[in-house]
Amino acid sequence: MGLVYLLQETAALITPMNLFYCFVAVQLGIIFGMLPGLTATVGIAILTALTFQWDPGNAILVLIGIYVGAIYGGSRSAILLNMPGTPASAATCLDGYPLARSGQAAQALGLATTASFLGSMAGLIALSFLTPLLGSVALQFQSYEVFWLAVFGVAICGNLTAAGDPVKGWVAGLLGILLSFVGMETIHGFRRFTFGVSELMPGFGIIPVLVGVYGIVEILTSLSDTSGERRMPQIGRTLPQVRDVLANWVNIVRSGVIGVFTGIIPGVGENIGSFVAYDFAKRASKHPEKFGKGSIEGLIASETGNNAVVGGALVPVLALAIPGSPPAAVLLAALFLHNIRPGPLLVIENPTYMYTFSAMFLLASFAMFILGILILKPLLKLLTIRKSIMMPVIMVLCMVGTYAIAGRLFDILVMITFGLLGYPMRKLGYPEAPFVLGIILGPMVDENLRRGMLLSHGNPAAFFVSPISIALVIMTFFTLFGRTQPVRAVFRFALSPVRGTMRSIGRTLGLVRRNGNSGSPSASGASEPFPGDRGEDEDLHK
Amino acid sequence: MNEGSGVPRGDFIASVLLIVFSGWTIYMSFTMRRFGELGLAAAPGLSPLVFAILLLICGLILFRRSVVRRGYRLAMSREKAAVFLRSLETRHFAVVLASIIIYYVFLGVVHFVLISAVYVFFTIWYFKEVVWWKNLLISVLTVSIIWYAFDQIFLIPLP
Prior knowledge:
The complex is a heterodimer. By secondary structure, chain A is mostly helical. Chain A is 71% helix and 1% strand. Chain A has two domains: 2-454, no CATH class; 488-541, no CATH class. Chain A is globular. Chain B folds into two domains: 8-75; 79-153, no CATH class. Chain B contains six helices and no strands.
């Protein structure tokens, strides 16, 4: 049934005007993606501001086109210049650039285009068929569950975007949440942290914050950067090698699935998805030694992975109103600005919208494939534009976009202020994504926390009663403390009876070594001791 | 848990700022007006209080970690400050930021096309990568295109 809806919506969407908007947007997205410093998030943030007064249908189509195009476009500068146009293409550099240096730039670009398209198709399947499932579960959410969901989203986003130092990710998320409390709150209409400044009453607008944190920080970083610019190699015809694609079908399916599920996790994003897919491809490859030296498998894995994340990241946007990646966070803000309310009520209020949205995504994916194959050489000239010329023009666009939302100069001041806050944050390793997610989800957290307290007559225990709440609390707890020593020790202790039982079964079946004798070579994988068999038990005894 | 990134001095300064900010937010949350019989439990200050306490905990973790890694030794000296201030990166940053602020100040006072073209021209001129007449051409053309597209075609009001 879902497929029928998807086809109906796609057919309804195919009009000359929509196709024109879609192709222009995807092309613009490719340009944004391939220019280092202009990420998909910056592109969507600027275009959200610029398309604010458009018809919602066209505006959302344009923004999806920008998103899909930008994530793909990043691969071009990654392959040709060893400079990822977007963070999502960082893994593409590892094998794309060595391929280009060995004279296979055209082949690498063709494969990247095909892999990106196939990754987008994996994302489309997830978007069309997982969203209704997740949406039906989301209907059971009340204030308590929504509160925990938002907290979990910020926590996991902080954890994953600052993997080396999760505390900084949480700090960024908490700062975002606290700053979202500025202005008039929704339950009592009380003004918080406004200090009598009337412009602060509606709170900080999402667009000025987004453009500031991403756009202004990028402008300041790029123009302060004193490292030199690079030259581009020559390329020939870019046609995908069907043979290479067919030989990698398992790799493509695996990377697509990894990308989709990485995308569904709130706030994680394409850069992590592509690296995870790359890592899995390397582990599964017969030639892992070629990875990093020009492996086609590696290139296909990273490009399939990052584009599959796009579809996956949009699943929680529609079903839960929780973004799966930073660009999806901006897209979520755009949906709200256009009076489309994603989340649990979307299934009731606008049941076919998720198929309309998926149809837009399908159209954008096809546009990306066609443009990626056909229009390449003229666009590569854009890569030679110096950042000292490009960035001031981007600055003018940031000003225009931010001002256009409400026609207030104060919003531009907010944009510059958040840019100044974001600059040291980036320098000190505080990720932007949880900060932005905190700003977006903060009002939801506040409203549901206090509404839940009112409903339970001030009893906080009500937040820990329903099975969904308990599951979310456990997930949040393990996200925050799962890597600490005491929690790991308790976890190991709790799982020791299960491990003992599995070990006994393994010995009975002859799969586990007994008294140090190795098993048969055919069962080499199974003949390894169970994870933590010895070392972990020793830890426990200590 | 991970012991963090390699900027202990930056972490130390950031942690002190976070502790001060969260402490101030906690104080402000307590002083906010309370409605109805539930008191603080449903007051506007509840959410800021809860999340400021969490931020305070994170700030204390960062503080402890940076102290263990001797981040409190800021080792500031005149020579280091002079080197930092004279570095090309600092100079570029200061000029770019100042030009953005001046651009903002004059927005709405001077016509959009004029002030934007001056801003673009100045920034390109500062980095000295294009001859002046090309710079002028780029500045005027790009800003005029932006103005025409948004003000005349999309009917978006510009400052």
